[in-house]
């Protein structure tokens, strides 16, 4: 259902408010650069520090600006099942094509709790749901057996797999059919995961190099392993650079240097250090990414 390079979109701020003009321009930028779908209000979109009102407004803006030219997969997860249902209902009402739903963070549910959490959301809101497994962020790892069981629920259509384990991704791929999309959640593992059968990536790197990431995913979907591998190695340093500091600090710095957004990030995250900024700038220059300000 969803494949290719799917950008985990930053949320641009100006004077600590959502910068609607920049947000709309980012949507246009990604469509022009060949990005296959957009995820607003994920981790990279600083969903943790958006108010409910801001969260809903950002999703509405992105859907309105995209005008169905590419799919919008709304971030709609929470550590509260009730809140997740609310955000998912809003996404559907607003016209989202799907939602991305993270495993509940902090409260560390069991595998049975994870199953019931996502089953409840799916039963309450008839919209395609992509699960999001990122144990480094949430403190809980959704194991393959749980994912495989959830994949049998009609409107649970895929998973953004960011455990960092190719074995775990492989187990899900092995025991689900082609109607369930396994999507990389780690930019640096996109090439090997797509070689195993994943459909694409929900990408931080695509904020800075959307065209090249889209080209790599397209090559892999077309079984052009040689081109895919070439592009993977071209992007690999940027994949690392995007995590020199906590995501989305580097992604926002890259967007600023490219003239796409102001250099604003919300506390408790802070601006990227000068040392890491110079390292990131060097990587971007090697990729011929146009830098218009330091």
UniProtKB/TrEMBL annotation:
Entry similarity comment: Belongs to the DapA family.
In short, the EC number is: 4.3.3.7
Q: Which Pfam families match?
A: DHDPS
Keywords (alphabetical) are: Amino-acid biosynthesis, Cytoplasm, Diaminopimelate biosynthesis, Lyase, Lysine biosynthesis, Schiff base
Kindly list the residue ranges recorded as spanning the membrane: none
Q: Residue numbers for the site described as Part of a proton relay during catalysis?
A: 43, 106
**Domain of life of the native organism:** Bacteria
GO annotation, biological process: diaminopimelate biosynthetic process; lysine biosynthetic process via diaminopimelate
Protein name per UniProt = 4-hydroxy-tetrahydrodipicolinate synthase
Q: Where is the active site?
A: 132, 160
Pathway-wise, it operates in: Amino-acid biosynthesis; L-lysine biosynthesis via DAP pathway; (S)-tetrahydrodipicolinate from L-aspartate: step 3/4
EC class: lyase
**PROSITE patterns under this entry?**
DHDPS_1 (PS00665), DHDPS_2 (PS00666)
Q: Describe the protein's quaternary organization and the partners it interacts with.
A: Homotetramer; dimer of dimers.
Function as written in the Swiss-Prot or TrEMBL entry: Catalyzes the condensation of (S)-aspartate-beta-semialdehyde [(S)-ASA] and pyruvate to 4-hydroxy-tetrahydrodipicolinate (HTPA).
């Amino acid at each position: 259902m969803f494949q290719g390079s799917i950008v985990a979109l930053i949320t641009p701020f100006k004077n600590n408010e959502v910068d609607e003009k920049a947000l709309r321009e980012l949507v246009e930028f990604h469509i022009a650069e060949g990005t296959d779908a957009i995820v607003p209000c994920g981790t990279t979109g600083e969903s943790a520090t958006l108010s409910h009102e801001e969260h809903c407004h950002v999703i509405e803006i992105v859907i309105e600006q995209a005008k169905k030219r590419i799919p919008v997969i709304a971030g709609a997860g929470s550590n509260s099942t009730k809140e997740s249902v609310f955000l998912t209902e809003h996404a559907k009402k607003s016209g989202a094509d799907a939602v991305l739903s993270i495993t509940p963070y902090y409260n560390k549910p069991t595998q049975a709790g994870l199953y019931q959490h996502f089953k409840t959301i799916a039963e309450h809101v008839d919209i395609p749901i992509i699960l999001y497994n990122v144990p480094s962020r949430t403190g809980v790892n959704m194991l393959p057996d749980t994912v495989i069981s959830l994949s049998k629920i009609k409107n649970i259509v895929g998973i953004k797999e960011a455990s960092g384990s190719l074995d775990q991704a492989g187990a899900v791929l092995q025991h689900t059919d082609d109607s369930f999309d396994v999507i990389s959640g780690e930019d640096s593992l996109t090439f090997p995961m797509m070689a195993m059968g994943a459909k694409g990536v929900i990408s931080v790197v695509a904020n800075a190099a959307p065209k090249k990431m889209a080209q790599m995913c397209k090559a892999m979907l077309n079984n052009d392993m040689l081109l895919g591998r070439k592009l993977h190695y071209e992007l690999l340093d940027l994949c690392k650079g995007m995590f020199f500091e906590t995501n989305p600090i580097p992604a926002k710095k890259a967007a600023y240097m490219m003239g796409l957004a102001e250099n604003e990030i919300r506390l408790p995250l802070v601006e990227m250090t000068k040392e890491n900024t110079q390292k990131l700038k060097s990587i971007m220059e090697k990729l011929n990414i146009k830098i218009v300000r330091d």
